[in-house]
Amino acid sequence: MMVLFSMLLGAMASTHAPSVKPNFVVILADDMGWGDLGAYNAASRIPTPRMDQMARESRRFLDAHSPSGVCTPTRYGLLTGRYSWRGKLKSGVLQGYSPALIEPGRSTLASHLKANGYSTCCVGKWHLGLQDGEKTDFAKPLTPGPLDVGFDRYFGISASLDMPPYVFLENRGLKTPLAGTIGASKMRREGGGGFWRAGALGEGFTHEGVLPELQKQAIGYLSAQTREQPFFLYFPMTGPHTPWMPTPEFRGKSQAGWYGDFVCQVDSLVGSVLDTLKARGLDDNTVVILTSDNGAHWLAKDIAQFGHLSNASWRGQKADIHEGGHRIPLLVRWPGKVAPGTSDALFCLTDIAATCSELAGIPLGPDGFEDSIGAGEHLVAQIPGKRTSIMHHSSQGMFGYRRGAWKVVEGLGSGGFTAPAREIPTAGNPTGQLYHLREDPFETRNRWASDPGTARGMLAELDALRKAGRSRP
Predict the structure, then answer these.
(1) For residue 5, what pLDDT is reported?
(2) Tens digits of per-residue pLDDT, 115-148?
(3) If we measure between CA atoms, which residue out of 409, 377, 415 comes closest to residue 394?
(4) CB atoms within 10 A of CB 213
(5) Closest C-alpha to 235, from 119, 356, 154
(6) Paired strand residues for 169
(7) pLDDT of residue 15
(8) Which pLDDT score is estimated for 11?
């Protein structure tokens, strides 16, 4: 089968000289739910015409997952092809002043592509730490940082848009000086102007202006590219994560409040990326991957108020071990090479590194990318995907394990934002959770007691995979 796949790639490459290797654009939305896109949820209260159009032109995955229910570990996993919990981040996320998380010398998708002739750029939310030591000193060069893990250029912010310092970073320094401070703001749900914490503020920085500036920077990078050198743009957006700050032209565009309007702005931004690639004549040889870092932070009261299921009918929300925490939209578009349609293949965002490498015809080698399993053959040759199991991880460090239709959870509760986060087992009752997702996709019936052998076997597999240090053969 690998011979067939190589022949297919060779035939495709021959029609696209001088740039034989495909370009890659990875767009990572922040806290966008499976059910926000009309392509996934016909009853969505948010119009997403550009992402829906992309979905019609893409392989649309129905069983794709982030490696964590929250953002920092997902970003680590996407770039390194390794579960974050194998390293020092066992739960939670970094902050704006946190030191660098990616270990010195560790290969990333960016460094791997750069070593093989790619121009590499990151625009957006970093959230993987900067410098060494206890706390980032923004008066000093921001190294280690994005430029030390394979990116030729970086522009963005250090962490989430609700975490200080609020300032743009460019390569190894600040775009503008830190000129003052800003007070905290409450969530829109509480009548605030959009949630953020108090902290240092850069000169001229506004929360509302961040997504438009990131769009400008990403489009500027793409507009400068040619067919002579392949490129990789990693575009981790700041929306629709809090603060929900849609610019005026998007306000009132949805029927899901401030959040829905912000998703509309994200949708428009995705469209501008696709339009730029087409205008530059790069569309046919560019693989565009659109996904989200975890499920949406969408509460029961939000559903009641707007009638919108941001996470569709999956149980739970952002941060949880249940499907709503980590089942995410995933679109892969490569005109003429990846046939549009839906895919039931199991996919983890750690697989992006190996998948891009396969599509570019670049071997990964034996070291690094420990949990990255390529889907290149599945995408191009339409054969079954190679991933047969996946590890799940919640914000509080609760583990789950999926194999086939079965899913086991190593504990009780959500492990995340949905109450109860943790439940203490009582005598004679289940100590964990077991679901059959084909028969019970929304995790309503815990089969721990009725199928104890399955639970024990899957827990043993979970533990073995955790101890093995890698998923990739």
Answers:
(1) 54
(2) 999 999 999 999 999 999 999 999 999 999 999 9
(3) 415
(4) 18
(5) 154
(6) 156, 174
(7) 35
(8) 45
Sign (positive or negative) of CA dihedral 255, 259, 262, 268? negative
Give me the pLDDT at residue 415, please: 98
Q: What pLDDT, on a 0 to 100 scale, did the predictor assign at position 8?
A: 54
Look up residue 264 and give its two tokens. 């509309």
- Rounded Cα distance, 80 and 57, in Å: 28
Joined tokens for residue 274: 């696709």
CA–CA gap between residue 371 and residue 472 (Å, rounded): 5
Domain residues of the chain, as ranges?
2-387, 392-468
Residue 352 has pLDDT above 50, yes or no: yes
For residue 412, what are the contacts with CB-CB under 8 A and spacing of at least 6?
Answer: 420, 422, 423, 424, 425, 430, 431, 432, 433
Per residue in 30-61, is it b (16+ CB within 10 Å) or e — as a string?
A: bbbbbbbbbbbbeebbbbbebbbebbeebbbb
The whole-angstrom separation of Cα 37 and Cα 53 is 10
Compute CA distances 401 → 57, 242, 354, 453, whole Å.
32, 29, 21, 15
Q: 392-468: what fold?
A: Arylsulfatase, C-terminal domain (3.30.1120)
> What are 90's two structure tokens?
């066992």
- pTM listed for this prediction: 0.96
Task: Report the topology of domain 2-387.
Answer: Alkaline Phosphatase, subunit A (3.40.720)
CATH topology match: 2-387 vs 392-468: no
Residue type, 307: G
Q: Which residues contact 53 (CB under 8 A, 6 or more apart)?
A: 271
Reported as a single tens digit per residue, the pLDDT across 160-174 is 999 999 999 999 999
Contact 108, 80 (CB under 8 A): yes
- For 385, other C-beta atoms within 10 Å of its C-beta total 19
* Cα maximum dimension of the chain: 68
Q: How many Cα atoms sit within 13 Å of 461 on the Cβ side?
A: 20
Reduced to 3 DSSP states, what percent helix, strand and coil does the chain have, rounded to the nearest 5? 30, 20, 55
Single-letter code of the amino acid located at 351: D
Distance, CA of 450 to CA of 463 (rounded, Å): 22
Task: Give the confidence band of 17 by pLDDT, cuts at 50, 70, 90.
Answer: very low
- Give the residue-averaged pLDDT of 192-214: 97
Contact 266, 237 (CB under 8 A): yes
User: Is 70 exceeded by the pLDDT of residue 6?
Assistant: no
Q: Does the structure show a pLDDT above 90 at 453?
A: yes
Give all strands (DSSP E) within 140-198, no chain letters: 153-157, 169-170, 173-174, 178-182
